[in-house]
From TrEMBL:
Ranges of residues in domain Aminoglycoside phosphotransferase: 37-120
One matching Pfam family: APH
Region: Disordered, residue numbers: 1-22
InterPro entries: Aminoglycoside_PTrfase, Kinase-like_dom_sf
Name this protein carries in UniProt: Aminoglycoside phosphotransferase domain-containing protein
The organism of origin for this protein: Cellulomonas biazotea
Amino acid sequence: MAGVPHTDQEIPLEGGNVGGAVRVGDTVRRPTGPWTPAVHELLDFLATTDLPHVPRVLGVDDRGREVLTYLPGRVVPIGVEPLTDAQVRSAMRWLRRYHDVVAGFPRDSRRWRFVERALEPGEIVCHHDSAMYNLAFDGDDLAGVFDWDVAGPGRPVDDLAIFAWNAPLLFPDGDPALAAHGLTVMAEAYGDVGPGEILDHVTVRMTDASDRIEEGQRRGDPGMLRLGEIGEPAATRARVVTLLAHAPAIRALLPG
């Protein structure tokens, strides 16, 4: 699958801060790493299912970058425009479907970005960055989920936590009623999880994410070093402290 032609017409893509993705025609080009074979195996597996809104692997270009299909849609600008309730519901329904489908992915050991091991009981392969900056929408409907390069072993609530961190809990010292409402919409659309469970796991998940970013920076991972340029993981650790201080007010407004 190597040797996909390169053209000079490259358009930097909005989204996360890790991958350095560019659009070339109807394809996306992204840097590769030791984790890429596992991620491509995951995407190839998903291509055999009925799960929509996932990029397809086309190969590697002559610069050694992975080549994926381009997913159209609009990325809602984080910190500028909130997701609508309908967008949250659409994303959660897709995430639940993904978790159900990926449970069939082989559980043996693979080299992921942060770990090399098999899946443990209760684990699936999580996207691990299912945040609004990695989602594209067509109106209120989810249209694409991209940036799969940090996928790896985890529990389903890990993906819920990263979504919550970047949507209803983006401003943890903001209106607790808005945060509680967003968590409730998430939980009801996903199913079989309570909003309090999501809230409780966010600090665990983001502390773990901070540790992984630091570890990656020590290893010289280019994507993690780019996060360092925007103040990570110090900024995340500071937000976790803020969330811990405001979590009781949010929890008091959750149903049940």
